[in-house]
Write a structure and sequence with these properties.
Structural class: mainly alpha
Number of strands: 0
Radius of gyration: 14 Å
Order of helices and strands: HHHH
Largest sheet: none
Strand content: under 5%
Number of helices: 4
Amino acid sequence: MTTLIPPPGPDRHRAIVSEVALLWAAHRPGPFPDVPFDHRHDLAYLDFNMAGCVMTYLRNDGVPGPGDVEVLRDCVSELRAAVALLACSAEYREGLRVFRGLLAMGELILADGA
């Protein structure tokens, strides 16, 4: 999955913040998805770290918190691996949806010049 990053322009930042807000709203309502048991702890921790970064970014109108850029870079790398893992089995379809959304949010925030 490739995240569509808005092109440069005066409304780019606002478009990214809006897209992250939409993705976050879609992410939040459900319980933690079914994922492989051996990876559950790591994926829950990844979800937790991303949640903190995304909530701070949205609360600060598109400005990451101190240290969040480094956390996001690490998380995006781990999210790519998580998406690849979850894509291997139809059993984890919901987990794949959730972690693809987190990956998209991370990529968007980093592309926002964070």
